[in-house]
Amino acid sequence: MTPIQKFNRRLAAAGVLSPQVTVVVAVSTGVDSMVLLRLLQQLPVTERPQLVVAHVNHHLRAQSQTEAVYLQRYCQKHQLNIKLADWQVTDHPEHGVEAAGRQFRYRFFTKVMQATGAKAVLTAHHANDQVETYLMKLARGGDIAQLTGIADSRPFAGGQLVRPLLDWSKAELRDYAAQHDVTYFEDATNQDVQLTRNRIRQRVVPELMTVNPRLLSHVADYQQQLADLLAAKQQMVATLLPTVMTKTGGLIVSQWQRVPDQWQLPVFKAWLTERTGGLVSELKLKPLVAWARPSSSASRTVAVNASWELQRSADIIEAAPIKKRGKKLMPQEKIMVDLNQWQKITTTQTVGIFTQAPTATSQPFWLTTADWPLVWRPWRSGDRVALKGGGHQTVRRLLINQKVPAERRDQVQVLVNAQGEVLWVVGHKYSYRTTGTQTVFLALKHKS
Q1: Which residues form the Lysidine-tRNA(Ile) synthetase C-terminal domain (predicted)?
Q2: What are the structural domains, with CATH classification, of the chain?
Q3: Strand arrangement, sheet containing 375-378
Q4: Which residues neighbour 366 within 8 Å (Cβ) at sequence distance 6 or greater?
Q5: What secondary structure does DSSP assign to 231-276, as a single string?
Q6: Distance (Å, whole) CA 294 – CA 288
Q7: Mean pLDDT over each residue of the chain, to the nearest integer
Q8: In the 8-state DSSP scheme, what is residue 200?
Q9: What is the reported pLDDT for 44?
């Protein structure tokens, strides 16, 4: 099967091969997205969807404006509907520009979908992107489910996000562009090996392809195998879960312990997720599983997070909401961080650490495995934040410089790691970091 046949097959699977369907095409003017646009234009009229070109001028390099003007003229010449957005320099964060730019783009795509009634957004992710993403996740570590890589489609903004070029290599895209006289622009920042993805793209992938030129297809095969295994695991857990639960949803410990050892943790996780409605980080899950196994020294209750606890009664474990002790947060209180959950730390502040940005103002931040577990707590004398130049600033001096009234300083909370280092003075300043093993997003919601 040729790459173009595979391209058409992915579009058909997404249900967008129809002139009755409108799709948004994300076009950056690079070779990937310009080839994507040309391939869509070459579809037979009876199959070609209505195309809406979406372009974001990130203002990250001098030629950004030239690219935007070219694309406008191209769309005018080919009678294509185009929607433009500008990400102004004044809105660029001090660091984490790449992640923030991605958030801006996808918010814009959502708006375009809603305004045009589009069924899908099409992006030009290709086989090389897939391998780069796989290697980055492999290096950072985490849940094995994350190694499934870039999905060919997923739900997005009431429709779907479709990547029809995942079977194409970068070389094949360049060959197509040369053969069909496709004009495109090279992004000079792609050569900047200060960025992790670029280092992998420019140095690691080429080296691996000298070992085996079929690297791209092999990684794709492994990812499909992993996706199949995870799907089978999910089906098995769904089969086992009802056998260990009471009619009211409690966990029957003796029944759960009869489940084969390798299935006990995933079944427990599925039960806990179903009962609490939230995900529990792997770091917290293992101690909870150990507690669930009967022991003469085990307590009758254990906290899952700030909102839920597990209660043991004979052979049954129940998940129950923690009764509120009052609205005021005690100054000496510490709160363990629950990944991918909002947590109230003061009467006016709700915070969270997420693997995907939950809000437009979320701050990308590097973490390492050694940082966990993380804690929210009031700041203390001696706390300090890391600065960009390599120095530090005390939290006390920071609050004075930011003219925080003395009576409000005691209410300021900080995020600290397992070593007691301050990573974030909530609402005021982030510690400076440029490397880590995991990218997360720090988010804050205010209530007046």
Answers
A1: 374-444
A2: 3-211 (3.40.50.620), 239-321 (1.20.59), 335-446 (no CATH)
A3: 335-336, 375-378, 413-416, 422-425, 429-430
A4: 433, 434, 435, 436, 437, 438, 439
A5: HHHHHHHHHHGGGGB-TTS-EEHHHHHHS-HHHHHHHHHHHHHHHH
A6: 12
A7: 87
A8: I
A9: 94
Report which of 295, 299, 240 is spatially closest to residue 271, judged by C-alpha positions: 240
Q: Are 384 and 395 in contact (CB under 8 A)?
A: yes
What DSSP line would sit under 297-341, residue for residue? T--SEEESSSSEEEEEETTEEEEEEPPP--SSPPTT--EE--TT-
Tokens read off for 318? 């129940």
Going by their DSSP bridges, the two strands 422-425 and 429-430 should be labelled as antiparallel
Q: Tokens 């203002």 label which residue?
A: 59
Calpha distance 184→84 (Å, rounded): 18
394 contacts 326 by C-beta, under 8 angstroms: no
Residues listed for the chain: 448
CB 219 within 8 A of CB 131: yes
Q: What is the DSSP letter of 411?
A: T
Q: How far is CA 382 from CA 374, 396, 398, in A?
A: 18, 8, 12
Place of tokens 């300021």: 412
Amino acid at 102: R
Counting Cα atoms < 13 Å in the Cβ hemisphere of 164 gives 30
Strands, E, within 328-437: which ranges? 335-336, 343-344, 349-354, 363-367, 375-378, 384-386, 392-394, 413-416, 422-425, 429-430
- Per residue in 332-385, pLDDT (tens digit) is 568 888 888 999 888 888 999 998 888 878 899 899 888 888 999 999 888 999
Phi, psi for 125 (deg, rounded to 5)? -60, 140
Give the separation between CA 164 and CA 10, rounded to whole angstroms. 5
pLDDT digit string, tens, across residues 141-169: 767 777 777 888 989 988 999 999 999 99
Task: Identify which of 386, 432, 426 has the alpha carbon closest to the alpha carbon of residue 402.
Answer: 426
Q: Which residues contact 17 (CB under 8 A, 6 or more apart)?
A: 8, 11, 43, 47, 48, 49
Phi-psi region of 48 (alpha: psi -120 to 50; beta: other; left: phi over 0): beta
Measure the CA–CA gap between 298 and 181, rounded to whole angstroms: 71
